[in-house]
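ok so I'm stuck.
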Amino acid sequence: MIAVALAFMALSSIGALRPLEDTSYTIISPVRSLLTAIASPIANLVTNFGDIHALTSENERLRTENQRLASEVARLQEDATRLEDLQRLLDVKQSLADQTFVTTRIVASAPTNLRQVVAVDRGKSDGVKTGMPVLTEGNALIGTVTKVDGSHAWITLVTDIDSAVSATDLESQAAGVVSGNYSRQLSMEFVAAASSIKEGDTVVTSGLGGSYPPGLVIGRVTGISGNPQEVFRKVAVQPLASLSHLDNVLIMTSFTPTKVPLP
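replied:
not stuck anymore, here's the structure
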């Protein structure tokens, strides 16, 4: 066997086997080309499959990251809105520096549209008592604390059917009583027909009766019915506060309502 191998090596070194080698290459070359042609698409398919798998994984990762970023943006926007809201309430505190307040958050509302009542997350343990006025931005009165327990309180809004606030038209000084109704609107009753009240006027608390401090903004006059020949005129008032979109509000804990006895 060794001798045969040595003989082939010797013949190859002097070129004696070249015709045989050329013949073998000629025979094998077409087969090799055929195998390459068959194998190449398979190799490409395997490579492409790997690329598709990698792209799918990357897309899934990017989708998950996009969802996380979207949630983070939403949270930051909510925090920014809450910060702006609290800043506006701070402006109220600064404008009424002689009063003290508890900042509270609305956590629930009345289950039916018949009552305009909301619940907040502060109660007796925070110094909240019934009768305390509740404000929002712009020094706007939104209602009164009507029920309290240890950690929660319930606020009856000015638009509630049971709400009645002694009020004054700031421009004409016309007096009246602002009350709510089932349509969630405000009306100012018992306004003297001879008064010069007009649309666009600002209506504030008068302080009469001792239930509210004077000067808290209730709303603006949007309509007047009746005529000078009548004893009273009825005035439509638009609340300054957006009562259907309340979030954080201020309870004026320094104010103690007093009932002025009738003569």
